[in-house]
Each structure stands twice: as structure tokens, then as C-alpha cells.
What we know:
This protein is mostly helical. The chain has a single domain (2-313), classed as Orthogonal Bundle (Tetracycline Repressor, domain 2), CATH 1.10.357.140. The chain has helices at residues 5-13, 21-39, 45-68, 73-76, 89-110, 114-132, 138-155, 157-163, 166-189, 194-216, 226-246, 249-261, 263-275, 277-296, 301-304. Helix 2 packs across helix 7, helix 3 (45-68) runs antiparallel to helix 5 (89-110) and helix 9 runs antiparallel to helix 12 (249-261). The longest helix is centred in the first third of the chain and has 24 residues, at 45-68. 47% of the residues are buried.
Amino acid sequence: MESSKPAVVLQGNTSLDLARLPNLITVAADVLAGYWIANGVQIDSQLLWLLLATSAVYVAGCALNDYCDREVDPRECPGRPMPGGRWEPWETLILSLALFTIGLGASAFAGGSAPHIMILMIFTTVLYNVGTKKRPYLGPLNLAAYRSLNLIFGMGLPFWLGLSGLPNRYFPILTFLYVFLLNWLSRFEAVGKSKEITAVAFLGWANFIAILLSLSFCPAVSLENLPFLALFMALTGPALLNAGRLQTTFSAGGALKMMVLGIPLLDAVYCSAVRGFAAGVPVALCTVLASLLAISKKVTCDLNRKSGWEKELF
Length: 314
């Protein structure tokens, strides 16, 4: 009897897989960077409410994703909480609805344009899970819109639309392009066109880097963002080249993983471009924390499904 207790505790803890913790860190990094871009480097109650809101809605999306995939996960992701019997479908759905409500409430406490943007984020989350997830182009566009809105959520709509300079307006658009690229790669890698798709993805990545470099030399942008841009390139570029060279599902999944973990570094590029190198450091450290969580998270699902980390984005 006593020997079974540790196993039960461990099994209960693995329910944290529902939250996709490594990616939850990248979601928080979007809001942190956006808020500091708009308001300067500070930690106040509004930022904390924003972080709570975006975290709640992201986990709600993960729970809704698992609920919607309850028929296929026993085959593709048997280690997930629902197929493993740690969550019932009705419990997952109720949790999702509760977290959506918490996210909307927290955004109301944050004030300003946050509740309006949060409504759009909830809409894109639900739309992805019930409508666009299985569509090869609409799904990536949907997820890209969600992550772009998440950065705007941190900035605030008035700042992004009216008070910010032109480079600041580009940041959510760049996030949209990047997240669309990595999701598009994950979708088409699943249908067996690995060689063509990884080549196109690398060309897209190279053009994306060229755009970032061009923005870095704008008069309104600080060159202190270049170290973070170099780190971003070092993390994502070799993995994409390796995927193109090896042409295997495992290498493509590794490239997707590095691209997802690189999102906080991309946020650090934005933040340091406006607020200086010191402002980018805490945002960039989110990549380190997410990477450590990803290493410690032993999930065999990603090795078994051809679409790599695509599902892990929700």
C-alpha cells in the first residue's frame, strides 16, 4: 500500500501537461515584452493582471484542444491527461470555460483596452479548436493571429495604433509572420513533403531575419537588440538547416521546437530595440526557463505524431 503512494503523486503532477508549461512561458513573454515596450520597464498590478489573464486563456485553449481531440489523442498522444484517465472530458471542458472566465475577468481588472483584446483572443482560441485546426492554411493563420494579439494585449491597443512609432507597429505583424511560418511548416511536414517545405521554411526564416536586421538599423531603433537577434538566429537557424539536411520527422520536430522556444528571444529583440539591452534580458531568460521545462517534460507524444510541436502551441 505504501509503495503506491509516490506513483499516485507523480501521476497527479503530470496533469500539468494540460498547461503545456514550456509554451505557457513563451505566452507570458509576449505580454511582458509588449507591456515594457509601451510603459517602460516596471512591474505593477496592471502587468500582473495581464499575465494572469493571458496565462488563464492559454491554458483554457490547451484544455479545449484536448477536449476537442478526445477521440484521436488515445492513438496519437496516450500520455496526455485525458487519455491517461487523469481528466474526464467533462472536467476538461468545465476547466476550459472557467479559465476563459478568469482570463476575461483579469483583463477587466487590468483595464484599458485589455478586455476588448481579450475577447478577440478568446474568439481566436475557440475558433481554432472548433473550426480551423484541421485546415492547412486557416489553422496557422488563426494561431498566428492569436500570438500577434497576445503581444498587442501587452502593449495596449491605443499605444499600438496611435501613440507608438512605426517600428513598434511592426512588432505584432512580425510575430504574426513568424508564428504562421512555424505552424505552416508543422502542418505540411505532416503530409510528407519534408524536402520542399523545409526549404521554403528556411527561405522564409532568412527573409524574416533580413526584415529584423533592416528594422534594427532604423533611426528609432536601438542597436542594443542585436545580441538578442544573434541568439535568436543561433537557436532557430541551425535547427532549420539540420531539418533540411536530414529530412526526417525527428529533425523537423526539433526545428519546430527550437522555433517555439525562440519566441521569447524574438520578444527580447523587440523590447531591447525600444528600451535597451537590460530590458531584453528578463524577456530572453524566458527562453531559458521554457527550455529547461521542455527538457524535464518527458512526453513521447511529439515523437509519435508527424506534426511535431504544432499541437503543443495549444
